Amino acid sequence: MSHRVGALLGRYPALRLGLLIAAPLTWLVAVYVVALAALLVTALWQVDSFTGDLERTVSLENLKTVLTGELYRTVTLRTVGVAALVTVIDVLIALPIAFYMAKVATPRRRRILLIAVLTPLWASYLVKAFAWRATLSDGGLLEWLGTPIGLQSPGYGLSAVVMTQAYIWLPYVILPIFAGLERVPDSLLEASGDLGGGPVHTLRWVVLPLLVPAVIAGSIFSFSLTLGDYITVNIVGGTSQMLGNLVFVNAGAANNLPLAATIALIPIVVMLGYLAAVRRTGALDNL
Amino acid sequence: MTLSRTARRVLAGLTGLILTGIYLPLMVVVINSFNTDQAMTWPPSGLTLEWWRRAASNTGARDAVLTSVQVAALATLIALILGTLLSLALQRFAFFGQNAVNLLVILPIALPGIVTGIALNNAFKGILGLQLGLLTVVVAHATFCIVTVFNNVQARLRRLGGSLEEASADLGAGPWTTFRLVTFPQLRSALLAGGLLAFALSFDEIIVTTFTAGSGVQTLPIWILNNLFRPSQAPIVNVVAVVLILISVIPIWIAQRLDGER
């Protein structure tokens, strides 16, 4: 019996493919695609402001609210700005350390550094956010360190959100950039040097172009993870709000799931636009 | 390209500085777990083992750890199976819609957690009328964990190429025998690496969890969030955090051993 199945599978590759792909594809479509589609439909529904019941009639009311509301525009710009800033900071910090790890450090030291970068990845996200809350607080470490040299702790607010998020997502950016640099062959750097290229020239014209997909892969993490965050904002953001907060409040306390769904479309559109823009670079294979 | 001594020193210095920045807040957590002052002002006014003693007898934290381990183990198991199947399909076959499938695997992690969270919450509760519980969390976590296994296995398959599998088929082995005796042994360390990452991702996830867990389900991140702002409990959260950091060395050590083997 099993022989016959084997022979059948051997003869028909399409059958093999079908068997391999059926379960995962069904899962992803049934769980994820359907859920996203349902979210889209929910965005068109309403909540009766009097009874709080869901009205399943199609209307563009929520879309209009979100597209024209001052609040949503401000918060969207703020959120995208914070996510972009976090990403830029993380890439700028990740480049030198990843370069040192991949191209300068001895293999033994590289290993130790890799562990050092990976360990905080396993420390709880919440604890890291909370550590920053303690560090930034009145009488916290930052104030203690800063006062003697005349610097102040920024306190809780947007800049605290940027610092904390950049801190939390940094390992996610370092790792793909490090992996990307490891794939740049040393011989290429030597060849550039032999041909008279100085370090700066080599970095700019040899390393950087090869590194673009890895940098983008890292940026997808930091950008997306910041884009939807609302918990760090609650912990160190003071009174500032990001898109995630609006979704969370509307889905929960405000009991307006359709509006929450509509707001959630903003990060979806932003992220899909970002993914579409970077698809050609091959970055998605580097995730 | 040869870097000058100065350039190497500057890079080493920057690396040291960045690592200090990475570890300083974690050190704050470690020291605060011994801080006598509940408000955690700096520098600590005194040191105590009180919080460690209290944490040891805290059943809430212990139950939450168990729940998280359960969720992460189940989600990882599902992700391992689905991720391996999918990477075999995409790496060993060429078919129409391949890129779309590729994007579909990445999407649950590329879209912000709040989107995944509210979409699944809406689907489970609003559309399917399910009661949120442990199982809904597992399904949600498995969905975004597939990609870590998929990436690791996919990268390994790409490097291995298909020649050994073809040889096995030429010698008369069926697809299942080939997988069991040829492909799987070569995938083992990639599966472990992907599985570890999936486990970690699930263990630490809070946003999707908040939206898909029923009120009765308390994973460790949810327990931490609930206790973070309670002055009497916050120091215990510090202790739990330190323990987690210490335990996390084990999987990293395993992953490094695997890397060395490769």
TrEMBL record, chain A:
This is ABC transporter permease. Residues 76-276 form the ABC transmembrane type-1 domain. Belongs to the binding-protein-dependent transport system permease family. CysTW subfamily. Pfam families: BPD_transp_1. Keywords: Cell membrane, Membrane, Transmembrane, Transmembrane helix, Transport. It comes from Kineosporia babensis. It comes from the Bacteria. The chain crosses the membrane at residues 20-45, 80-100, 112-135, 155-181, 202-223, 257-277. One of its GO terms (cellular component) is plasma membrane. The keyword Cell division does not apply. GO terms for biological process: transmembrane transport. It is found in: Cell membrane. The lineage of its organism: Bacteria, Bacillati, Actinomycetota, Actinomycetes, Kineosporiales.
TrEMBL record, chain B:
GO terms for biological process: transmembrane transport. The chain crosses the membrane at residues 12-34, 69-88, 100-120, 126-150, 190-214, 234-255. It is a multi-pass membrane protein. Pfam families: BPD_transp_1. Residues 65-255 form the ABC transmembrane type-1 domain. The keyword 4Fe-4S does not apply. It is found in: Cell membrane. Keywords: Cell membrane, Membrane, Transmembrane, Transmembrane helix, Transport. The keyword Lipid metabolism does not apply. SUPFAM superfamilies: MetI-like. One of its GO terms (cellular component) is plasma membrane. Belongs to the binding-protein-dependent transport system permease family. CysTW subfamily. This is ABC transporter permease.
